[in-house]
Amino acid sequence: MPTFTAPDGTELAYHVQGEGEPLVVLPGGPMRASGYLGDLGGLTAHRRLVLLDLRGTGDSAVPADPATYRCDHMVDDVEALRAHLGPARMDLLAHSAAGSLATLYAARYPARVRRLALITPNPAALGMRATAEERLAAARSRADEPWFEKAFPALETWLTGKGGFDLACLPFFYGRWDEAARDHDAATEEQTNEAAGEVYFADGAFDPDATRAALTALAAPVLVLAGELDGGPCPALARRTAEAFWNAESVVQPGAGHYPWLDDPAWFVRRVAGFLDGGETPLSPRSGRTPS
Fold first, then answer.
1. Pick among 3.40.50.1820, 3.40.50.800, 3.30.470.20, 3.90.700.10: CATH of 3-127+192-289
2. Residue 43 and residue 82 in contact, taking contact as beta carbons nearer than 8 Å
3. What integer pLDDT is reported at residue 279 of this predicted model?
4. DSSP secondary structure string for all residues of 126-178
5. Which tens digit of pLDDT belongs to each residue from 180-225?
6. I need a surface site. Which of 57, 208, 234, 259 has the fewest CB within 10 A?
7. Comparing C-alpha atoms, which of 62, 274, 28, 234 is closest to residue 139?
């Protein structure tokens, strides 16, 4: 298992899968070990995935200072990984909460990014978050599911702050609550550093106006991919996220939830690999490039 040293001396680990041009991958959670990403639906057939375990997760060491779990403090961990790997510019993919980490990295080191793929991202770094109303609206679209009657009240209770997260909510995060989805959840449920996750979005992590201004220096193409059934982000929030980048496109994967590589691996891989290789691969009438 390869490792490198962060600027503060914390030893960080990453995992390599596949062949070809490297693609650095940042996991979400927040603060979830990279194992839940698997091979991203078979993206390893096109790229060599370099999956980072963020500090305090997976095989990476726990930092001496817990305050460094805050999202903005980990930007230089990503830059240390790039320097360790060697390329002057890198392709970067981030999932969910790591969308904010990747956005901060692109704002601080715009010349180091060749292409950026944000997969069902949390755009808190841009001053936007999925609202309870957006999440509940997405959930209501699944009223015909056999698990909906039990799951929706649990989701509503959690999102409105009347109770904690209930495992009954889990089906809403997947495009299909089938055996593969249940297996994915069971295999990865212990991979999150909950205490670190509480720090990730702490006060002071983000300055949206400064980030948006800094992103004007980013020339790299950006892909923002949303799941049609996902509430966080819903497709409309994903489109607004793409608008923060001058050279961005937003795309909606039909029938997908928060883990789109599980819901339709072939669709996901074609679209993401096409973007990373510099081509346009329109696969849905919902796909569309934002004005630039």
1. 3.40.50.1820
2. no
3. 60
4. GT----HHHHHHHHHTTTTSTTHHHHHHHHHHHHTTSS---GGGGGGGSSS-S
5. 999 999 987 779 999 999 999 999 999 999 999 999 999 999 999 9
6. 208
7. 234
